[in-house]
Amino acid sequence: MIGRSLATYFTLRFAVWILGMFTGIFLLVFLIDSIELLRSTGGRDDISVALVIAASALRVPALMEQVLPFAVLLGSIAAFVTLSRGSELMIVRAAGLSVWQFTLPALVFALGLGVATSTIYNPFATWARNLSGDILVGSRASVMTALLSGSATPSWTRQRTGDGNAVLHTEGVSDGGRTIQQPVFWVFGADGMLAERVEANVGQLEPGQWHLSDATVTKSTGVPEHHDSYFLPTALTAEQVAGGLGSPDSISFWQLPAAIAQARASSLPANRFSLQYQSLLVRPLLLASMVLIAATVSLGFARYGGGEKMILGGVVAGFVLYVVIEVARSLGSEGLVSPVLAAWAPSIVAILLGSTVLLFREDG
């Protein structure tokens, strides 16, 4: 059994490499994102450079949640390779420790990191991302708010409007479902015929109605009419808007169960929120699978040579796993497979494959 001092030493080595890799990628993403946002807002008087940089800094923590598994993979590979080059792994092998014993500290650290990022880091990143949208709402920067809002892709829903119905399309949702960006309403009368088409820059949800700013209304005559303010009745609440139009990424880990229950109570699809919740629950296993992948390609570095090809194979394996996870998420979000299966299956399969390869390579 590995001693406490040695386990602490290995844990610190892995922690330094993984957190260092995460920090380096964070700074790189922040730099790229800031430059892109500055380019997109060039020449606008209502958006200052400091505001864009602040919004980008608040947005990057949420983006880094997608990068975290790769930071663990690359950091673990670097840690294993440096330990091999320093002959430290050779010494612990000569002392009678198996590969599972000196890999255990890295696995425990990855599991702990996964729990911490799901329960602590995710709520902070979600709060920061929502705050970035609120900051730009205050600056009336509607285009940038859509980019930084809780909904990253266009969304559709149906609502009641007085005697008829309306189909709503929006480019983004922020402020907990109380603000929608670039909404388009197709309003149908009681007879089911199209009555008017309403486009607006920003929509604010008020009790029983939408307050649309800078709206263009096209009625059956086909002549567009511009309105600085336009009101449409609605029966939607902010929670229903966030549940039907918002992105699961805009809801923190601790709020997701309530969001799932709210969506189901409102007869709205809850697959996206269930999938996000299960993905956060399985994150510790996903990070542990990245450590196993790193071990399978890095531990042979000192024993068999050809380290560059083996490390490249590990990186490719990590990207393949990412693609599989994204495909599974797409199937789960559309309800084609269970969200539980879509979230847990790729990580479990990766752990089983990594363990099998490691057993075959190290134990024959």
UniProtKB/TrEMBL annotation:
Entry keyword set: Cell membrane, Membrane, Transmembrane, Transmembrane helix
TM helices/strands, residue ranges: 14-32, 67-87, 99-121, 280-304, 310-328, 340-360
Pfam families for the chain: LptF_LptG
InterPro entries in alphabetical order: LptG, LptG/LptF_permease
GO biological process: lipopolysaccharide transport; transmembrane transport
A GO CC term assigned to this protein in UniProt: ATP-binding cassette (ABC) transporter complex
Main location, first listed in the record: membrane
Topology relative to the membrane: Multi-pass membrane protein
Superkingdom: Bacteria
Localization terms from the record: Cell membrane
UniProt cross-references to PANTHER family, sorted A to Z: LIPOPOLYSACCHARIDE EXPORT SYSTEM PERMEASE PROTEIN LPTG, SLR0882 PROTEIN-RELATED
Name this protein carries in UniProt: Permease
Source organism of this protein record: uncultured Pleomorphomonas sp
Organism placement in taxonomy: Bacteria, Pseudomonadati, Pseudomonadota, Alphaproteobacteria, Hyphomicrobiales
